[in-house]
Amino acid sequence: MTATVATPLLLSLKVALAATAVILPPGVLLGLLLSRKEFFGKAAVETIVHLPLVLPPTAVGFLLLRALGRDGILGEKSLGFDLDLLFTWKGAAVASAVMALPLVARTARVAFDGVDPRLTGMARSLGSGPMRALAEVTLPLARRGLLAAAVLGFTRALGEFGATILVAGSIPGRTETLALAIFHDMMAGHDDEALVLVGITVVIAFVAIWTAEALLRKREAAR
Description:
Blueprint (H helix, E strand, L loop, with lengths): L2 H34 L5 H13 L2 H12 L7 H4 L9 H25 L3 H9 L4 H12 L1 H16 L3 H7 L9 H10 L3 H32 L1
Helix pairs in contact: 1-5, 1-8, 1-10, 2-5, 3-9, 5-8, 5-9, 6-7, 8-11, 10-11
């Protein structure tokens, strides 16, 4: 494998794994909240969570760029220190995580919807506290769906382009992921190199989606 292929591939995997690690806890928490709780403004929360699914990725990237800029709400002036995310691989991970959040939260919600709340109630009636009932009953029963959420989030982060290029740029060896490398190879007329990268991306995405679907099918069969 040549450096022109290995470098963006390894960087993409690094970014996607970091994005998944960042977004999985809040995504699962949102899925649990939306599945189990009724509260004022729930529809607004659901809408905001799902916005990255319908907004152009470049719009999300622009908003992140403004928020992370020096004068933004997450910028140096507001926080008193620089998060040092713009035009770094960490910034690419943040942008990818934001774009992956809707898939993670939505799949996690479906996983929790498949767990009968009466089972948690039984655990509570036997003396388990809410956190223990969650850890010993709800999460184990929803584990396949949550694994599917993680896989889908990873896949979405792996293929992110629009938000990433605005937040992290496309610096070879530093922020140039597979999606960005494919774009640049096409623009430069290096169709053969772009085709190799596309092939790698398709294989990774196919395996990830196959795994997620298999996990969801097993969860449905176990119900």
